[in-house]
Design a protein that fits this description.
It is a single chain. By secondary structure, the protein is mostly beta strands. It has no helices and seven strands. A four-stranded antiparallel β-sheet has the order 2-5-7-6, with no helix packed on it. Strands 1-4-3 form a three-stranded antiparallel β-sheet, with no helix packed on it. The two termini are 18 Å apart.
Length: 98
C-alpha cells in the first residue's frame, strides 16, 4: 500500500471526474499545495491493482444550491472563503471516514 495524491481542479459548480485504483481509500481532502489553486484527495492505494474506478466530484461554495444525489466529503477553508467537496455515490465508494 502507498499514499497517492489525486488533484481536483478548482472549477466550482462543475462535475469533475477522477480515476483511482479500485479499492482506494480516501484519507484526506484538502488544498493541493505548491501550485495553482486546486484541491486534492489523498488515498491509500494498492499500487499493483490494475483495475480503476472513476469518481465524480463537485466543489461548491457556502450558500450555493446543492444538486441532488451528492454526498459531502470535506469542507476546506481558504482565506475568507469556505469550499465544500461533494462526491457522487458510485458502486465502489471511497473507503475510510472521508
Amino acid at each position: 500500500m502507498k499514499v497517492w495524491k489525486f488533484p481536483i481542479g478548482f472549477r466550482p459548480g462543475e462535475l469533475q471526474k477522477i480515476v483511482v485504483p479500485f479499492g482506494a481509500e480516501a484519507i484526506h481532502w484538502g488544498v493541493n499545495p505548491g501550485g495553482p489553486m486546486t484541491f486534492a484527495v489523498w488515498c491509500m492505494v494498492d499500487e499493483n491493482e490494475p483495475r480503476r474506478t472513476e469518481h465524480e466530484i463537485m466543489v461548491l461554495g457556502t450558500g450555493w444550491d446543492l444538486p441532488p444525489g451528492l454526498r459531502h466529503r470535506a469542507t476546506v477553508p481558504i482565506g475568507r472563503e469556505i469550499w465544500h467537496i461533494f462526491i457522487k455515490p458510485s458502486l465502489n465508494p471511497f473507503g475510510g471516514g472521508y
